[in-house]
């Protein structure tokens, strides 16, 4: 039997806005520690915004977010959110994942370099290490951003539609990686439009028009929406 879960992040009545336009409305949810939570809902329902709130990069307009984990969350945005013109290579991009540990532009240690190489290999992009990020396809770029997120070695990994635009092999690599991290006790929250991926999660949060409309915990069988 699995041990009972504790809470990694507690969202209490969280509302968020862009300027004066409200986007999230009083979201209450407890994200379980060491589990995979899928964030689902239609386009524009607020999934990315909620990930930003959980990551601490989007300040709620009201309500509170309490994080019970150590270290900084790792947020992996969609590749389309990153400008094409950034003059960095894939290896540089992944190495940025180590900045939280070393500080920007510091020399990487041998351990950092090993982590960067391991993360690129895991996502199948080792051969692209010297290519500029802006010269890559969408799926390749997404993999570089995912590798950067993994390189942070955070215990809270937030992924915005990590499989979108990836081929079948890369999608499977992402799912395998998420499962392996969960087994190591990492809390993962990922936004997804893929029902099969959502069913594979331990916990599902559904947003519609910025409101939480379902909060489902997985049991031994299918998660039951309540
Ligand atoms: N930078 C921004 N400035 C203003 N409004 C924004 C901004 N980003 C998102 N929005 C608006 O906030 C709402 C929620 O957007 P969000 O990106 O969080 O939704 P989503 O569920 O992640 O959508 P998708 O499935 O399309 O990725 C939408 O109405 C969107 O238009």
If you had to describe this structure to a student in words, what would you say it looks like?
It is a single chain. By secondary structure, the chain is of the alpha/beta class. The chain has 2 domains: 1-73 and 154-221, P-loop containing nucleotide triphosphate hydrolases (Rossmann fold, 3-Layer(aba) Sandwich), CATH 3.40.50.300; 79-153, no CATH class. The protein has 7 helices and 9 strands; from the N terminus they run E-E-E-H-E-E-H-H-H-H-E-H-E-H-E-E. It has helices at 47-55, 90-95, 99-102, 110-122, 138-151, 168-183, 195-199, and strands at residues 7-18, 21-32, 36-40, 62-67, 74-76, 156-160, 187-191, 203-208, 211-217. The strands form 2 sheets. Strands 5-6-7-3-8-9 form a 6-stranded mixed sheet, sandwiched between helices. It has a 3-stranded antiparallel sheet with strand order 2-1-4, covered by helices on one side. It starts with 6 loop residues before the first strand and ends in a 9-residue tail after the last strand. The chain binds adenosine-5'-triphosphate. The site of adenosine-5'-triphosphate has 11 residues, from helix 1.
Short description:
By secondary structure, the chain is α/β, with parallel strands linked by helices. It has helices spanning 47-55, 90-95, 99-102, 110-122, 138-151, 168-183, 195-199; strands spanning 7-18, 21-32, 36-40, 62-67, 74-76, 156-160, 187-191, 203-208, 211-217.
The CATH superfamily title of the largest domain: P-loop containing nucleotide triphosphate hydrolases
Specify the structural class. alpha/beta
User: Strand-and-helix sequence, N→C?
Assistant: EEEHEEHHHHEHEHEE
Q: What compounds sit in this structure?
A: adenosine-5'-triphosphate
CATH class of the largest domain: Alpha Beta
Classify the helix fraction into a percent range: 25-40%
Radius of gyration (Å): 17 Å
Please report which band the strand proportion falls in: under 5%, 5-15%, 15-25%, 25-35%, 35-45% or over 45%.
25-35%
- Distance between the amino and carboxyl termini: 23 Å
| Topology-level CATH name of the largest domain | Rossmann fold
- The low-pLDDT segments are 219-226
In what order do the strands lie side by side in the largest sheet? 5-6-7-3-8-9
Shape: globular
Summed up, the helix count is: 7
Q: Could you say how many structural domains there are in total?
A: 2
Overall pLDDT level: 89
Characterize the largest beta sheet: strand count, sense, and whether it forms a barrel. Answer: 6 strands, mixed
Quantity of strands, as a count: 9
* Reported CATH architecture of the largest domain: 3-Layer(aba) Sandwich
């Amino acid at each position: 039997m699995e041990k009972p879960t504790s809470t990694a992040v507690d969202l209490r009545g969280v509302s968020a806005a862009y300027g004066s336009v409200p986007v999230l409305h009083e979201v209450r949810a407890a994200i379980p520690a060491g589990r995979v939570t899928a964030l689902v809902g239609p386009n524009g329902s607020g999934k990315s915004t909620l990930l930003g709130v959980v990551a601490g990069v989007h300040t709620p307009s009201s309500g509170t977010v309490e994080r019970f984990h150590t270290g900084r969350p790792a947020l992996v945005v969609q590749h389309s959110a990153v400008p094409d013109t950034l003059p960095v290579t894939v290896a540089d991009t992944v190495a940025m994942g180590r900045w939280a540990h070393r500080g920007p532009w510091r020399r990487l240690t041998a351990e950092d370099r090993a982590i960067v190489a391991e993360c690129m290999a895991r996502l199948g992009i080792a051969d692209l290490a010297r290519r500029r990020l802006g010269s890559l396809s969408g799926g390749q770029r997404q993999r570089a951003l995912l590798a950067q997120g993994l390189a942070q070695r955070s215990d809270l990994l937030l992924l915005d539609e990590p499989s979108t635009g990836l081929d079948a092999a890369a999608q499977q690599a992402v799912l395998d990686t998420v499962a392996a991290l969960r087994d190591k006790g990492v809390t993962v929250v990922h936004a997804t439009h893929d029902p099969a991926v959502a069913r594979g999660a331990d916990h599902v949060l559904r947003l519609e028009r910025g409101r939480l409309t379902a909060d489902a915990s997985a049991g031994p069988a299918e998660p039951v929406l309540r």
